[in-house]
Design goal:
Length: 232
Amino acid sequence: MINPNTSQAMTATIEMCARAVVGPGVTVNGITSEIGPESIESYYDEAMSVPGVLKAVRQGEREGVDGYVIACFGDPGLDAARELASGPVLGIAEAAMHTASHLGTGFSVVTTLGRTIGQAAHLAERYGMQRFCRGIHACEIPVLDLDTDPDARKVITEACREALESDRSDVIVLGCAGMADMCHQISAELRVPVVDGVTAAVLTVQSLIMLDLRTSKRGEYAEPLPKAYSTG
Ligand code: 5HY
């Protein structure tokens, strides 16, 4: 589980939630990016987070890691990571949207800041999820306040309730890895499926590994061509 931001606290939440759902004999390690932003809330943050994601994948390849999850709702560096990795790589937005499409006729995404709504919309389009994605909303809680703000879950639950009403949707997708530990309580209160990408992604990667399926190296996701890279 690669956390593309540098928050150790957030990695701990991500790792705890993933370890709670994987099968026997499956080891999950939460990796905090060594380089990049403390949280990802803009295109600039996302671009600055990609080198850290790729560094973690290269390290994983040296250690023989079987699969990877990019645990940030922008799925930063997903394509490049798939070129580097021999095993499957999933982004949490990708996994959450596909999982939500199995559970209802339309989902609403509730993310952190309004300025990240555009990125989530781009991903819904990229993943062919426009037909299922009825709306994307923001709770306006900064990423790093999710586990310190005592009202965070109440505010997010209300944002989810309003989204279900306004979008006439029947499933919720939580738009941040930092919300992973809230999905069960919000689902119990709203009585609808609430999908968290962290657990959806780790179980999807686990399934792919159990099926001995990995990223195809035939086309665009072939290993990067050997060349010099100046790191400034
Ligand atoms: C995330 N940012 O999952 C995204 C959420 C967002 O640092 N981890 C982050 O707001 O896009």
